[in-house]
Specification:
83% helix; Arc Repressor Mutant, subunit A; 2 domains; mainly alpha
């Protein structure tokens, strides 16, 4: 269970885009500041000077706001990474605790974890160096100990904890829509 590469990549791209935008804006601001200083010596009351001074001030403010936005984005990415790590650890603890409550053997624990990760019987058998019949028998014992009828219910047992209140019933959805 890992964070989608698309989400992580999008966050990194946003950070990179903000950084590049801020760098370009800073370079433009340096140019305009130099130009305004040069114009200040020539004709400080002209419309050209006033326009460039206002644009330069706007660019400086843009850099300040951009720096804050970049900082917030980086902090948000860090917070999301930390929350994901906590969620991974918490789910791992829940799974381990439930496996203990069901009294799964070490082999059943391995097979159960691989099944939760989405591997099929053939993949689990190959990884464990076991026959597919052995893996099927282990899965059957796991499902029996868990009180579920198959892989979908087995996975749903743990997903239900993540959903908290769960999925609203059709009746509740109808009441809200009406």
């Amino acid at each position: 269970m890992s964070e989608s590469p698309d989400i992580r990549t999008a966050g990194r791209r946003q950070t990179a885009a903000l950084s590049i935008f801020l760098l370009i804006q800073t370079l433009g601001t340096v140019f305009f500041v130099g130009d305004v200083i040069g114009d200040l010596r020539e004709d400080p009351g002209s419309a050209h000077f006033i326009f460039e001074a206002v644009v330069t001030a706007a660019l400086v403010l843009g850099i300040i706001f951009g720096a804050f936005a970049l900082r917030r984005t980086i902090e948000l990415l860090r917070a999301q990474d930390q929350a994901l790590a906590v969620a991974r650890g918490a789910l791992s603890d829940v799974i381990e605790g439930q496996f203990t409550a069901w009294a799964l053997t070490p082999a059943e624990r391995d097979v159960g974890l691989l099944a939760l990760k989405g591997l099929d019987v053939a993949e689990i058998a190959e990884l464990r160096g076991a026959a597919q019949g052995t893996v099927r028998a282990q899965l059957t014992r796991i499902y029996s100990k868990a009180g579920v009828s198959g892989r979908a219910q087995f996975a749903a047992f743990f997903v239900e904890d993540l959903l908290g209140a769960g999925v609203p019933s059709a009746e509740a959805s109808t009441v809200k829509a009406g």
